[in-house]
Amino acid sequence: MVRANGAVSLRELARVVQTSEVTVRRDVRALEAEGLLDRRHGGAVLPGGFTRESGFPQKSHLATAEKTAIADLAASLVDEGEAIVVGAGTTTQELARRLARVPGLTVVTNSLLVAQALAHANRVEVVMTGGTLRGSNYGLVGSGAEQSLQGLRVSRAFLSGAGLTAERGLSTSNMLAASVDRALVQAAAEVVVLADHTKLGADTMFQTVPTDMITHLVTDDPPPGEERAATELQALADRGVQLAVAPSPGAAPETAPREPLPAPRRPHGLRPPTVPRLADLRPH
Predict the structure, then answer these.
(1) Whole-angstrom Cα distance, residue 91 to residue 196?
(2) Is-contact 223 41, C-beta < 8 A?
(3) Has residue 128 been placed in a domain?
(4) Most CB atoms closer than 10 Å: which of 70, 90, 171, 221?
(5) Which of 198, 164, 202 is closest to 181 using CA atoms?
(6) Dist CA 71 CA 75 (whole Å)
(7) Are 204 and 170 in contact (CB under 8 A)?
(8) Could you read off the pLDDT of 239-281 as tens digits, one per residue?
(9) Is residue 19 located within the same domain as residue 124?
(10) Structural domain of residue 14, as residue ranges?
(11) Helix/strand/coil for 169
(12) With contact defined as beta carbons under 8 Å apart, do 83 and 108 qualify?
């Protein structure tokens, strides 16, 4: 599974082989000792430093329950009538499916998957960037995508990536995708990163969002025994990132609700973002 997908979570391995995560974790340690794979927080990847990128078919089957929980929590950040940007990825695709219920929303995206999820949402306006289609994640990249984002200002950017560390922030394996993600970040007053626990501690080639530019991290609760994931989360919190942690799939519901996430912080003098019209975003 690791060779086919590039990465796999312990939960997914335990489900496929029908055993406990404790047993899977022990076996993964043994395989790492033989040099056959590298352990990451909550999962395993192919050996050799930086995590390589998997294609969409593989990504769509990784940590699916965790992505669903993260998308549910991230959707609570979005208000009626807001204008946001949403990057490419399987987790942001899950988010988009929930945004279809938010009236008066404007979503600017470079992702065909996000646009498709919102195509039949009558009260949501979808604005696509230009660019060249990247087949591995159905995202638009290149100068056309970046130029179409110039001059745009929205309240929040929702992004995912291939890895997240307190030291480097969010990263991805593709240079063109990283460049577009940076342009999405520049268009937003706040940045919300969506990353399941298997991404925590993973480091890939191209930095997209440095840690000090991440406002919120929406993630899932790491499984028991993943002390390194908890350490990474604490390190991110120490750097000023606000954490929103979704419960683990199958976990009992909390007896008390979590504290609501705060309203977006805007620099002094910055006027609240207005919903852009489609005509304003087209190149003249």
Answers:
(1) 9
(2) no
(3) yes
(4) 70
(5) 164
(6) 6
(7) no
(8) 999 999 998 765 544 433 444 444 444 444 434 444 444 445 4
(9) no
(10) 2-52
(11) strand
(12) yes
Q: Which amino acid is at 26?
A: R
pLDDT in tens, 213-250: 999 999 998 887 777 788 899 999 999 999 999 987 65
Q: Which of 168, 214, 218 is nearest to 194 (CA)?
A: 218
CATH number reported for the structural domain that contains residue 176 in this entry: 3.40.50.10470
79, two tokens: 């208000």
47 lies in a domain?
yes
CA 191 → CA 124, 137, 158, distances in Å? Answer: 21, 21, 6
- Is residue 283 in a domain? no
Q: Are residues 96 and 204 in the same domain?
A: yes
Rg, the chain, Cα only = 19
Angle at 172 between CA 24 and CA 146, to 5 degrees: 155
Tell me, yes or no, whether 161 lies in a domain: yes
164, 206: one domain: yes
The answer to whether the pTM exceeds 0.90 is no
